[in-house]
Write the structure tokens for this entry.
Amino acid sequence: MENYQISILVGVTVGFLARLYLLKVDYRQYPSYPHGYVTHISFGFIAAAIGSVAISAIMKPDFTAVTFLALAATQFREIRKIERETLSNLDESELVPRGKEYIEGIAKVFEARNYLVMAVAMVSSTAAYFGGWAYGVAAGALAQMVSIRLMSGEVVGDFAEIVPSQPLFQGALLTVGGVVIMNVGLPSHRAKILKEGLAVVIKPKHDDARATLDNLGQRQAILHVAAALLGSKKEVGELEFTPLARKDIDTGMIAVFLLPIEPDMECLIEAIRKVPILESAKRRPLASRVGRKAAD
Amino acid sequence: MAVQLKDTILAVISLRPEKVQGGGAPIFWAETQEELEKNALNLSRILNGAIHDLENGVYIIVGH
């Protein structure tokens, strides 16, 4: 076979497999519908094809052919917009919504994954062009491992300690760890909350953590994941059982209250520990001189 | 989803007349604690609001 053909074939195959692997690893972030998988897989294939053709175009040489990479960028940006709109529309019918920040994060990740696949396919096809299919596969696998390492984000458990707590009432005010969460009117609702409610306190380990947890989008993501994994007894007309998170203004710790269907404290702590830190919510005041000075 | 008034008092249910004055939301008087709670529950379901207790014999239904 010609060099072009091996290179393109290897590039497309490795890129496509890389996309499949990424889909498997993080499926829980997306709504689970089969047509969604078809869409993701198709775009992954297209991205792999575009990436693998680039080196052949340069070697031919046919430099103008590389301009289609710009076309790919436009297309993928469109996809991010579409994904964001779809998820936002679906979020309206969720009882405990993901929130705009989380959705933005998901849409960004979707776009970024297509670019990564393009890059992996490019690396793989270049190696295959110069060294044969074995080198192509090896280089592709290496590129994929590097990209997974670089893209893997932090989770809440990395920068905060999650401590079990109790929902308590001071009169009609529901409190967790000394933080007032909300006013619950009916005595029967209060009894239900005391009997079946779960509460945790998220203690940030440092100022960067505190600033990140301050973000409402990050808190909403925590609530959404907790409610998604443990269930929530919130109903359209029963707003008293809404999962809520409130900050202690003096220490920055976040008190979380949830009325779950599965009352398992260990699972709740584990679920919150694994909530991803949203890129847009991440703050690092300690990285600046002023922030460090203010912190001491 | 239909538009709903957010963070406004949709209704007030009270045991004691001297504790509430008029001002936009309808006031429902109750004679016993039981009637108070029953009215509050019914109204919260109908208005799709949350019940809050002001701890002086007055309950308010607020849209969130």
Observations:
- The first strand of chain A starts at residue 160 and ends at 165.
- The mean pLDDT of chain A is 88.
